[in-house]
Design brief:
- The structure holds 3 protein chains of 3 kinds.
- By secondary structure, chain A is α/β, with parallel strands linked by helices.
- In chain A, 27% of the residues lie in helices and 17% in strands.
- In chain A, α16 links the parallel β13 and β14.
- The mean pLDDT of chain A is 87.
- The longest helix of chain B is centred in the N-terminal third of the chain and has 29 residues.
- In chain B, 47% of the residues lie in helices and 14% in strands.
- By secondary structure, chain B is of the alpha+beta class.
- Chain B is built from 14 helices and 8 strands.
- Chain B has a single domain, classed as Cytochrome-c3 Hydrogenase, chain B, CATH 1.10.645.
- Helix content of chain C is 29%, strand content 24%.
- The longest helix of chain C is centred in the N-terminal third of the chain and has 13 residues.
- Chain C is α/β, with parallel strands linked by helices.
- Chain C has one domain: 2-Layer Sandwich (Beta Polymerase, domain 2).
- Classes of the chains: A alpha/beta, B alpha+beta, C alpha/beta.
């Protein structure tokens, strides 16, 4: 075989490298700075973190634990837990960072750790490496795996809406609901803010899995008016949703609406919820007022074998949700479906039976072992300005009640609504549907309005003019004592020295007059306790118009329970439902447990 | 006269390849009479683990199937999920993926070069090639945040966009690598020692190669032009201009030369990709990984890795988690049934050479 | 991609003419799924190899459909000539996990079958090399079967290093604070039950 001369000589070519500087090792030693994106140890901004635990859930190595650390408490909107990473297990895939809802978790450029002590590989990011803040490398900004955009809810166009009382919100389609439900990280932080602590992550996950019926069943576990809440809940849960830290919260309310609407009628609903109804236990409970609270008490007590009767003054059940909320938000057939379902499991409702008029309170007391009062706030506050008694000056709550009872109310074509709550917005939007031009006068700024922002936006879409920082001074009437105009003054906001919210102060001389045909006042309501006998009034405690109750909604009289607007300041349906749910526990305990001490007081 | 047979255990500590594997040899003198592959040192049950993890949680797992070249795994799983789901991938992401895949091919070839020369006793080459591979790992570090495991390509696109100035850095590295190739030629491919150790050794029968399931450079070293990038172009390979080099002979030398020529092709592909890369989105977001339901379906996807066709058979039953992900690495055939056959008759000193030239990678045999 | 599917359609036609009971689906360009009765698999594979030029057995896989009490055997064939992958599938009962070997058609099938035998416990008659492959001294049920519980296995065979017992469940922490009681039927719907 011939000698391959080239093949023998050419490798010696490499010798010329001997004179060159080495590529990889530098002397003296230079520490190599990691790349801008290097995935090293975790860093967690402990202030930003809300302890939702999504990092621990997504970690495919089970390297992350959620633990209590000193100085961080469990609060509303923060589980009080913080992640701890076992760097012996971590694979630096950074899924935890990319799926952190708040963006508090990141990776740093630091990566060197050598130790014989395995425990030293447990790192509480942020606490053990505060200096990591300066070396953050891998962040999720703009690259998050979570979806921060809500699936938009289909609605009627503003121009279409004002033509009728048709429901404005059209509801999610199945595909939209699945997509929206899929955004949830399932932490359950939201449940703390829900007055009744509904099982939110569970029913959302059921929807995401495509099991809508299970979602309904979970919803009805502690809320018998799921469909109502799905349409009109004030959804405090969404305020503290983990995803809301950086984006739009999960549309928890709309998902509840989607699921509950799947049950088209009471029979389907009953079949889906399939509640366990215990045999009668011989105890009897009376409920005054078929509002959301009263209905809740009745529903769960009936399921537990109690004999329950609701006494309702009007001819429909539902209370404020029937008479206060306009039908374009909560249609009548939806309410009726829910009431019919309750009747079908054994709830008895006596309509047109006003306690104190058609039946006396003492009679009730004799018929039932316990009584729940859920009469709500039915009597409107007055503006307290001149000309208020004129024709054309009406109270929003009376106005809405009349409209919801399908009565005609003459409001003319130019309406001013005074107030900034949901009732004011409802009155304004109803007036638009009756064909009037509507202006809302509100004392403070738009951002101070207690109404839901979606309602405010909805009103604006429909052409309602909102005039903030305007305080009504006088209603000007004509010779027939009919409303002719309203005089108001503009106000400026002055900060509260005590740190409270800023207060409006009239700007002297900045007064204006608008011509109107009606003025609708919506500045709040109070309760009418006149049906209660004096000895009951004296025995219970009423503070600032509200009955004082304990954690079981029990008044100072052990057999008397109260809830809803007359017992809490939140003025919404879900709080009334929560009160009802608590009262159920109380009444059950009181009537089924023989050895209650303190003369029947549950504490 | 028949010589006495002895049993020789070759391995399992990195027997000339990346990963732990053992070949039980029956030898008569210097000549191998029978070879039996023993694997099981690196079984991590990835396929089972992925059945118990969500789709997104599977991505950090698949890349660990192969150390020298993790990206084809990510690419395969991403493409399989996209195909089952019908998910679109932005054009820019496709270009970035091709760039990553070619960079990883280069990195893998550098590592192979070190290994192949090392088994022939040329110890300067590994020093150089591992050092030069580091420049590619630096690029990966900057692009993906990780040097070895990138966890970068996933369903819907890639995780992050290119950092500022990255294309220029890649081009500079490519220029450097290209300037180094002639040096490697002189040191290794033109080296009489290497040629003598490589030519005519470990020959695969050309007529049987396809039937035996030989893929990648060993197949092209038999003169058969087959490359997934050409036969079933994925991502944007159909828009790029490159050739599939083949060599006749079916021996170690042919396989080595195929790889050597492919390095030039890869450099050229990377340059084209950078030139043609469009702007725009780089990621078509999947749903929240905790609630990501992939519709029922199945698919077989393949990617041309540095060692040949890398296939994934993926089945989804519509749930949160994969029903089945079955990995078909090129070494699955090369390292067992092929190796056992071509080792027969070979010399003991050539075993490591042959194994390395086939691109045997135990972690992908057993996953 | 709007390509000419001539090769695919012709192949489907040929398979149809020979195997009348085959369920054939063109999944996409160069992917054909063929579902066959289990006894037709060996003749089909032999036919595909010898007459349709599917000379590359790319892969052999198995899927455990435990809910149907069946194993699905999946043969992935590739034709260099036609550039088509045929996914040939059949189902066998889990109770009688046995099938015939195809190692006489492709010798790499021996390796594939060794793996499936070890991982799923399927016996391939005619394959005399179904010995220990990847697993060592395995005496549990074949691990890739769906009823093999990895977590339980880990708990039984390994211990957890102390030091992480203080880990809390987020959902539980919140319910503890709020007093929420999650009913049992809802518990499995907690996202936190991923693992």
């Amino acid at each position: 075989m011939a000698i391959n001369l080239k093949g023998i000589i050419s490798p010696y070519n490499a010798l010329k490298q001997a004179g060159k500087k080495p590529h990889t090792v530098q002397y003296p030693f230079e520490k190599k700075e990691a790349a801008e994106r290097y995935r090293g140890f975790h860093y967690n901004d402990l202030e930003e973190c809300i302890g939702c635990g999504t990092c621990a859930t997504i970690c495919q190595n089970e390297a992350i634990d959620m633990i209590f650390i000193e100085g961080i408490e469990t609060t509303n909107g923060d589980s009080g837990l913080r992640p701890r990473v076992d760097n012996g297990r971590c694979c630096w895939c950074a899924l935890c960072v990319d799926s952190c809802p708040t963006g508090s978790l990141s990776l740093t450029k630091e990566y060197l750790h050598v130790s014989e002590d395995p425990d030293s590989f447990l790192l509480i990011p942020g606490l053990d490496n505060p200096e990591g803040k300066e070396k953050i490398s891998w962040i999720s900004n703009g690259n998050s795996l979570l979806d921060y955009q809500r699936v938009p809810m289909p609605e009627l166009e503003g121009k279409e809406r004002v033509k009728s009382f048709a429901e404005v919100v059209l509801g999610y389609s199945e595909e939209q609901a699945r997509a929206e439900a899929a955004r949830c990280v399932g932490c359950g932080i939201c449940t703390d803010n829900c007055p009744v602590h509904m099982h939110i992550p569970e029913y959302i996950n059921a929807i995401a899995r495509g099991d809508d019926e299970m979602a309904v069943k979970i919803i009805y576990d502690n809320n018998p008016l799921g469909e109502t809440c799905g349409k009109v809940c004030t959804r405090r849960c969404e305020e503290i949703c983990a995803v809301s830290k950086r984006g739009e919260p999960i549309a928890i309310r709309w998902l509840k609406r989607y699921a509950t609407e799947k049950a088209k009628n009471k029979d389907i609903l009953k079949e889906i919820v399939n509640p366990v109804i215990l045999p009668p236990n011989g105890h009897s409970v009376g409920i005054i007022g078929a509002g959301p609270g009263g209905l809740t008490v009745a529903y769960y007590l009936a399921l537990r074998g109690f004999d329950v009767t609701i006494y309702e003054a009007k001819d429909h059940a539902g209370g404020m949700i029937m008479y206060g909320i306009p039908k374009y938000r909560l249609p009548l057939d939806s309410i009726e479906k829910q009431i019919e379902y309750m009747k079908s499991i054994g709830v008895k409702i006596l309509f047109n039976t006003k306690v104190g008029k058609d039946i006396s309170f003492n009679e009730l007391k004799q018929k039932h072992e316990a009584i729940y009062i859920g009469i709500g706030f039915e009597v409107p506050y007055k503006l307290g300005i001149k000309g208020e008694d004129a024709e054309g000056s009406i109270q929003a709550i009376n106005f809405l009640r009349a409209i919801n009872s399908e009565k005609h109310v003459e409001i003319g074509n130019k309406v001013v609504v005074v107030g900034g709550g949901n009732v004011a917005i409802d009155a304004a939007r109803v007036s638009r549907r009756l064909g009037a031009e509507v202006t809302i006068l509100y004392r403070r700024r738009v951002e101070d309005m207690p109404a839901d922002w979606e309602e405010i936006e909805g009103a604006e879409d429909e052409g309602v003019v909102i005039h903030p920082q305007a305080i009504p001074l006088e209603i000007i009437t004509d010779e027939n004592n009919k409303v002719k105009a309203i005089k108001y003054a503009n106000a400026e906001m002055i900060p509260d020295p005590k740190g409270g919210r800023p207060r409006p102060k009239i700007i002297e001389g900045d007064e204006h007059i608008i011509e109107v045909t009606s003025v609708i006042a919506a500045i709040g309501q109070e309760a009418d306790y006149s049906f209660l006998p004096d000895e009951v009034i004296n025995a219970i405690e009423i503070k600032r118009g509200r009955i004082v109750v304990n954690e079981y909604q029990q008044t100072k009289l052990p057999w008397l329970f109260a809830g809803g607007d007359i017992a809490n300041r939140r003025a919404d349906a879900i709080s009334a439902i929560a009160d009802g749910y608590r009262a159920v526990q109380g009444i059950e305990k009181l009537l089924l447990n023989e050895d209650i001490k303190n003369g029947g007081r549950l504490n | 006269m028949r010589e006495k047979e002895t049993t020789l255990y070759f391995g399992p500590q990195h027997p000339g390849i990346t990963g732990n594997m053992m070949v039980k040899l029956k030898v008569a003198g210097d000549t191998i009479v029978k070879a039996e592959t023993h694997v099981g040192y690196l079984h991590r049950a990835f396929e089972k683990l992925m059945e118990q993890r969500t789709w997104m949680q599977s991505f950090p797992i698949v890349c660990r199937i192969c150390v020298p070249e993790p990206d084809p795994n990510e690419e395969n799983l991403a493409r399989a999920v996209e195909e089952i789901e019908g998910r679109e991938v932005p054009e820019r992401a496709k270009y970035i993926r091709v760039m990553v895949l070619e960079l990883s091919r280069l990195a893998a070839y550098f590592l192979w070069m070190g290994g192949q020369a090392g088994t022939a006793g040329l110890y300067t080459v590994p020093q150089w090639s591992v050092g030069d591979r580091d420049y590619i790992l630096d690029l990966f570090e900057e692009l993906t945040g990780g040097r070895i495991y990138h966890m970068y390509i996933w369903a819907g696109g890639v995780r992050r966009d290119l950092p500022g100035g990255f294309p220029d850095k890649v081009l500079r590295t490519m220029d450097y690598i290209e300037s180094r190739l002639p040096e490697y030629d002189k040191l290794m491919f033109e080296n009489a020692i290497f040629q003598k150790r490589a030519k005519g050794i470990g020959v695969i029968d050309k007529d049987k190669a396809m039937e035996w399931g030989v893929v990648g450079p060993p197949l092209r070293g038999c003169g058969i032009q087959h490359d997934v990038r050409k036969d079933e172009p994925y991502e944007v390979y159909d828009k790029l201009d490159f050739v599939v080099p083949t060599y006749e002979g079916g021996d170690i030398w042919a396989r080595a030369m195929v790889r050597r020529k492919e390095m030039e092709q890869s450099i050229s592909i990377i340059r084209q990709v950078i030139e043609k890369m469009p702007g725009g989105e780089y990621y078509n977001k999947v749903p929240n990984p905790l609630n990501w339901y992939v519709p029922p379906g199945e698919t077989y996807v393949k990617t041309e890795s540095a060692r040949g066709e890398f296939g994934y058979y993926v089945v989804s039953d519509g749930s949160l988690k994969p029903r089945r992900i079955h990995v078909r690495g090129p070494a699955y055939v090369h390292g067992v049934s092929l190796l056992e056959n071509i080792l027969v008759g070979a010399n003991i000193s050539d075993v490591a050479m042959i194994m390395n030239s086939l691109g045997v990678c135990p972690p992908e045999i057993e996953r | 991609m709007n390509k000419n599917l001539y090769n695919e359609n012709q192949t489907i036609e040929e398979i149809k003419n020979t195997f009348h009971t085959a369920e054939i689906k063109l999944q996409r360009e160069s992917r054909i799924i063929v579902k066959l009765r289990s006894d037709l698999i060996p003749p089909f594979l032999s036919y595909a190899k010898n007459y349709l030029a599917f000379n590359h057995l790319a892969h052999f896989s198995c899927v455990d459909w435990i809910e149907d009490n069946e194993f699905e055997l999946v043969y992935l064939l590739y034709s260099y000539e036609k550039n088509i992958v045929v996914i040939a599938k059949t189902r066998i009962s889990r109770d009688k996990a046995e099938f015939v070997t195809i190692k006489h058609l492709w010798r790499q099938a021996e390796t594939y079958e060794r793996e499936i035998h070890e991982m799923f416990g399927i016996n391939f008659t005619g394959n005399d090399r179904l010995n220990e492959f990847i697993l060592e001294d395995w005496d549990d049920i074949p691990p890739m079967r769906r009823d093999f519980n990895t977590i339980q296995f880990a708990k039984d065979n390994f211990y957890t290093r102390p030091g992480r017992e203080d880990a809390q469940d987020v959902r539980e922490t919140i319910t503890k604070k709020s007093g929420e009681k999650i009913p049992d039927f809802a518990k499995e719907f907690s996202v936190r039950n991923l693992k």
